[in-house]
Known about the structure:
Layout: H1 3-14, H2 23-35, E1 39-42, E2 48-52, E3 59-65, E4 70-76, E5 82-87, E6 99-104, E7 107-113, H3 123-127, E8 138-139, H4 145-148, E9 157-160, E10 165-166, E11 171-174, H5 177-193, E12 201-207, H6 215-224, E13 228-236, H7 245-248, E14 258-259, H8 267-279, E15 285-286, H9 296-301, E16 308-316, E17 324-327, H10 328-343
Parallel strand pairs: 3-12, 3-13, 13-16, 14-15
Antiparallel strand pairs: 1-2, 2-12, 4-5, 4-9, 6-7, 6-9, 7-8, 10-11, 11-17, 14-16
Helix pairs in contact: 1-2, 1-5, 2-5, 5-10, 8-10
Amino acid sequence: MNKTALEFLKSLVAAPTPSGTEQAGQRIVAAYMARWGAAVETDIHGNVHGVLNAGAPRRVMLAGHCDEIGLMVQFIDERGYLYVSAIGGVNVRLLPAERVIIHGRKGPVPGVVGVKPIHLTTDKEREAPVGKIHELWVDIGAKSRKDAEKLVALGDVATIASGWIELQHDRVACRGFDDRIGAFVIADVFRLLQGKKLKVALHAVSTVQEEIGLRGARTAAFRVDPHLGIAVDVGFATDYPAMEEKMVGAAKLGKGPILHPGPTYNPKLLAALRSTAAAQRIKVQIQPDPRGSGTDAYAMQMTRGGVAAALVSIPNRYMHSPVETISLGDAADAVRLIAAFIAGLTGQETYA
């Protein structure tokens, strides 16, 4: 991966961006887009719009959501323990004994999710599934509610304290690649398009609140009113134990970004992306998606009178966990694919 792009990605995934509190990450995205000549604006919901060649009559929208799943402080008891609720699809089974960071108004506050010692659990307790999220507690070391409230307030968000880890063969693990890697891709497209004369208007949008209902993409797509839209998100890698390829289709790390046939995605646009990949000698994988997509592609497809939409996915192991794992090469190839596709558009294409 390009060194400048890699530095951008590392800074982006280090920022806390639970749904509704994406500002820290969005500032990083906005600065990176502007670096490559995009006109940048942040809308009322916090979506960051980067635009090139705004006056062209045909509009292309790229969308990658900057928000991640997280936790919110819901209650503080008399002893100073915090109780949290989920922001998005949090896997509660993974929370006991995790380290967390509460992002308070006075700065980050470290904490741990408490757990009963194994020595004191009964056989029945050991066999029981993890309880409800409201039964778990976060210990920040406070002596009382009043002591805790000096640092933490109701409504503060928290993230798992799990950062960037480099594995073998260009694999990296980190919390929140879903979908800061998508926001990275759509922003890094500007780097490859720098100096090129486009025949379409490019609107790349780092969207917000995808994890709680595709909210940012819905309003951004209505505003942009694109003729075609490409969402970039993570897809299910199946190259590890416990994954069933027959359920979702095979996808492996390091074998290229994923393209998706299915009712959400325009077949002509899909064919055009496959053709571009072949011309650029970029490997792609195919993973059918017969359902209504739970990604920003669905929000774009359903806006106004309808939009020709496609989804480009980065294969991701261990989705919605603190150790999401991707291949940097797959992300770089997604940038190359989308940039080449946009550069090759004449503005006369039709997708009906």
